[in-house]
Amino acid sequence: MSKTIFAKIKSVNFIFIFVLVISWVLLFINGLHQLDPDFGWHVTMGRLISENGIPKTDPFSYTMTSFPFVDHEWLTNVIIARMYESVGRVGLAAMYSTLVIIALLFSLWETLNLKDRRYEKITPLLILLPSLLVLGVLFSFAGIRPQVTSWFLIVLLYKILTDENYWKKWRYIVAPLMLLWTNLHGSFAVGIFVILLVFVVKSLRLRRFLKDYFLVFLASFTATFINPYRVRLWGEVWMQLSDTKLRWRILEWMPSLTFLNFSFIFLLTLSAFLVYRYWRRFGKERLFVYVFFLFQGMGSVRHVPLWSILTIPILIEAIIYLYDEVKVIKFGPERFTKLFTFLTYGVGFVFICQGTYSYFSSLSLSEKYFYPQKAALYLKSNLPAGQLFSEYGWGGYLIQYLPERKVFIDGRMPSWRYNNAPAGESNYAMEDYLGISRGGLDYKEQFVKYGIETVLWPKGKKTFMSELDRRFEKLLSKFKKEDKEKFNFVATLEKDSWKKIYEDDIAVVYRKP
């Protein structure tokens, strides 16, 4: 190609360049301020693997020490750890922000190359409208998170599978791509399913066995076993996919009805309406992939970014079909342009609001305002004799900043369970944690079992679990009345004479009497 992609963007619309720059800056700031709850264990695990190799059991918890932990993002953790040591969070935030923008550009590639004179007047709208909507959605999910890599990889895979020209030229890189993805993140399973889905649907449409698609699927599936865990990696993926309790315990696994994002609502409404209107005109493979990710996105918040970024090509195509339909009507093209220009202004306003909200949300999850930074330093200097019990959302942070003590639970463990755990360990740490913190279990008995002598707990702040409780109770309140008095874990400790030995604006530390 004679022009670079940035030259093409410039020839289309200067406003789009401005939107990309502003979006990158917002994504970068969010990544810099917002500390993902799992970031600490990602860094620590990456260092551990680099120095000692892949651990066979869990190295960070005292409740499930013998559990055969599978790190489905081991290579990403190594990369994060090494980059963190060399360029810090600034470099990581820049890298992941750039990945988001690149994924968006790949999804827009055909539209950026659009040379059809019939659509010259609406080309800026075809680029700007979906970009504003999708970026508004991604603001709520981006950051220094391994999942972001999957957004780029799924767009790349989708392009190759659904475009005949790309398929003929690039199908040989699909298996190596899946090999890389397998070792970067557990979402590789989505890629495998998409390859299989396209192969089956296209074979049925053409009424013949597509040998090249089958061989690519077979090679890609085989490549997923080239990892440090072999077949156990698929076991880890299945463990999470089959754990229905995740949808009501972890915020990002909850159904999308709990996710308030106006860009998502706008994108879902516009996309669903236009795709439904013109569904007969889309290629069956693209339509099935769209529907698959739509259901995935509605079923779980964590899949919303994948659906959003993949909906761009099919949404643009649907807008073109609508334009073709109205352009034969008198004054149709003019009215269409005015309508979509007005719509783009509205989406731009939503984009600004979503970006502003995302910025303040990132501050609320920053190290300064959410994590027990000072309390961790206190505990490091006054190391407790026994084990430490703490808030679920702080587990990853403590793994990095208080490595002298293992954690009760962290973000890797919600689905972990044994049939018969070794003595002194838990069969199901997440269930035990919820039982202790919500009053379903006798905390004294559990504390004796694990030798817990210190509790580090949030001081009147919104936590991951308190926010989950709030959303869940709000949902339940529509169906039944809850009369039971809410359990207060801290009040129970104080009632039982636990001594408060440290307190700041974020956290409080109690010691066993």
Tell me what you see in this structure.
Keywords: Membrane, Transmembrane, Transmembrane helix. The chain has 513 residues and is mainly alpha-helical. The chain has two domains: 5-33 and 70-363, no CATH class; 373-511, no CATH class. It is 61% helix and 4% strand. The protein has 22 helices and four strands. It has helices at 5-12, 14-33, 39-52, 74-107, 109-112, 123-138, 147-162, 164-170, 174-184, 188-206, 211-223, 232-241, 262-277, 284-299, 304-326, 332-364, 373-381, 395-401, 429-438, 443-450, 464-476, 489-495; strands at 387-390, 452-458, 499-503, 507-511. The protein has a four-stranded mixed beta sheet. Helix 4 (74-107) crosses helix 7, helix 7 (147-162) runs parallel beside helix 10 (188-206) and helix 10 runs antiparallel to helix 14 (284-299). The relative contact order is 0.12.
Keywords:
transmembrane, 61% helix, 2 domains, globular, 513 residues, transmembrane helix, mainly alpha, Glycosyltransferase RgtA/B/C/D-like domain-containing protein, single chain, 4-stranded mixed β-sheet, membrane
- Please report the number of helical segments: 22
- Sheet of most strands: 4 strands, mixed
Q: Give me the side-by-side strand order of the main sheet.
A: 1-2-4-3
> Quick one: how many beta strands?
4
Q: Name the structural class.
A: mainly alpha
Low-confidence stretches: 475-484
What portion of residues is helical? 55-70%
Let me know the average pLDDT: 88
Any idea how many domains?
2
- Elements, N to C (H/E): HHHHHHHHHHHHHHHHHEHHHEHHEE
Shape: globular
Question: Compute the gyration radius: what is it?
Answer: 25 Å
Residue share in β-strands: under 5%
Question: Termini distance?
Answer: 73 Å
